[in-house]
Amino acid sequence: MKYALVHAEKAHFPITLMCRLLEVPRSGYYAWRERPLCSQAQADVALGVEVAAVYREKKGRYGSPRIHQELQARGKRVGRKRVARLMRERDLRARVGKRWVKTTDSNHDHPIVDNVLNRNFTTVGPNRVWAGDITFIWTAQGWLYLAVVLDLFSRKVVGWATSECIDRALVAAALQMALRRRQPPAGLLHHSDRGSQYTSADYRKQLADAGIVCSMSRKGDCWDNAVVESFNSTLKLELVYTQDFSTRAEAHQSLAEYLESFYNVDRRHSSLGYLSPVDYERAAAAKTAMAA
Q1: How far is the CA of 61 from the CAs of 72, 95, 177, 268, in angstroms?
Q2: N or C of the chain: less Cβ packing under 10 Å?
Q3: Domains and CATH numbers, the chain
Q4: Burial grade of 66 (CB within 10 A; 0-12, 13-18, 19 or more)
């Protein structure tokens, strides 16, 4: 099987290097190559090349479940366990997340509202429940802060903004983008933590002016906003921890590409039946139209 791995990856890495790393003789590889493979082994080699290609295409962000779904979407009939085996044999692994770190500043005297959402993260349609949060990205110029607004129906990032300042203007800009893009009806529920940015008078007025109902997590309870916390973890894992940003502008550009070109339109979400947020909303809209 090691020789099969060398053969599958010889277009990307030197044969001598791979044989040394895998601790197999190079002469053994060439002798193996001259022997005819059984049909199953040949199929494994060919499929292994496709698996590795998808893994590289998705920049190492996909584990076996998502690569399996991606291959099926491309018309390849293959079992999930087989994909997982081929990935193990090629040492292709999705990245592992890090522990959650508390960043909320709730040491203020602003008014706090009830947790109306109460961890009910499922909703029947778009623009019914949004959730917001702030996370941070390190650059050589210092911290860059990212505020996002997610629609809990599709997990789509409907609004986002970055700034070198973690203030109410940051969250206001993200909300303004969401309102401009989605134009939600009155009565939408907006959930966040009780950080000073979200409890500020300016932000609460922005919500009220749009007819949005406010909901806030309990103090120090990250699970009350678990969907956005999960998004932050995914963002760090798939983008932030893989790069060293020289400038805030470079980080902003990478975030824009990730959010708008990958996360919303391409990334397969297990909670959405392995559809992307955009495809999930399209499917829901089509289903609604057919039922009308």
Answers
A1: 18, 7, 27, 11
A2: C
A3: 2-89 (no CATH), 129-291 (3.30.420.10)
A4: buried
